Every structure is written in structure tokens, then in C-alpha cells.
Amino acid sequence: MFLKDLFLPKFCLGCGFLGAYICLKCQKKLSYVRRDNCVYCGKPSLYGLTHYGCKRNRGIEGMICVFYYNNFLKKIIKSIKYRLATEVFRELCLIIEPEKLSKISVLKELKKGDFQLQPIPLHTGRLRIRGFNQAKLVADFFNRFLNLSVIDHLKRSKNTRPQAQIKKDKDRLTNIRGAFSTHAHILVGQNIILVDDVITTGSTVKEAARSLKKAGAKSVFVLALARG
Known about the structure:
The structure is a single chain. By secondary structure, the chain is of the alpha/beta class. Helix content is 35%, strand content 16%. Residues 5-54 form the Double zinc ribbon domain. Belongs to the ComF/GntX family.
């Protein structure tokens, strides 16, 4: 590890400090979600549960996020995604305050029956290029606290443009429509927790939930590292 740090030194993504990707000073720039919101109307909601009037037939039952997607966290996520720096993610996991994660355990109490964690999948072409799925990394991290089964039943059947590159909400919906597929007989009656790294407009998780519900899933919740 010493030789690795010598030849490939770590520099803070926030200030350039030598020795860590997220230095002690810049850790204070990370902003924890103080109140979760309904995924559809964006208004405050206890534990991020979808308001009764906002519910959809093939929609999401609730959404919990840990951080706000501010400029500093954006640098961290982009570094993980596009520079393939999985060590940055491991460092982020180590500095997350444990008490800030206590709310995710509420998910296990919301519905009767076991939940399964389903990371938002990458298309096989993009997975080959990147070598890993960042949503799977996030799911494995959350699972340290949830101790659930991590499944891989949802497939990215359409190689869409990155949602972050699309500005208009309408275009995001069009881009992601029909992007996922799954096997109906596996998911009938199951309670699923969709896991992603960042939620902005929610178009991706809404389309993924629609696919899971169409395949027979009983309920779909969303758990994300950050929200925009």
C-alpha cells in the first residue's frame, strides 16, 4: 500500500490536499439529506414514502437518499463513474456517519415479507467498458446494514444515452422508456428495493419500477446514495 501511495498518490477531489481523496476539511462539504421527499411531487414525506395522492399503479412506494447531490459530491461520483476510481467510493463509505444510515433500516419494517436489493443495471456494452456497475457497489455498501439478498433480475435491454447529458425532463423520459426488461415468473409477489447512486429527476428509477411492477413485483422502494 505504501508503494502504491508513493507512485499513485491520492489528492483530495475538493482541495487537492495530498494523502486522501476526501480530506477532513472537505468532508464537511458533504451535505446529508435532512428530510426525505415524495419521489413524485417532491414535497416532504416521512421516510420518503410516496404520498397517497401521488401513488401510481406501477410506481414507487417510497424513496430514501443519504446525501444531497452538491458540487463536491458530484466530483466524487463522476470520479467513481468515469475515472474508474473505485477506491474513491471505498473512502466515501468509510466517512459516512453511521447514525445518518439508521433510517435505511426502516425499509425492512415498511412491508411484511422479505425485501431484495436490485441495483439499477448498466447495459452490457457500458459494463464492459467501465468494468463495474457503480449501483452494485452502492447496493453492497447498503447491504452491510440491511443484510438482504442482492438480485440481478433487471436487465438494461436498451443502451440509452447517459441521463446526465440530457437537460429536458421530457427528453429524459423518452430516452429511458423501454430501457429495462425482466422475467415475470421470478418477481411475482416480491418486495424490491431499487438501488442507484444518484437520483435527479427520477426518470430512471421510475421506468425501472414500472418494469418490475409489470413483471409482478408487489412493491418497489428506492434507496440512493444522493439526490439532486
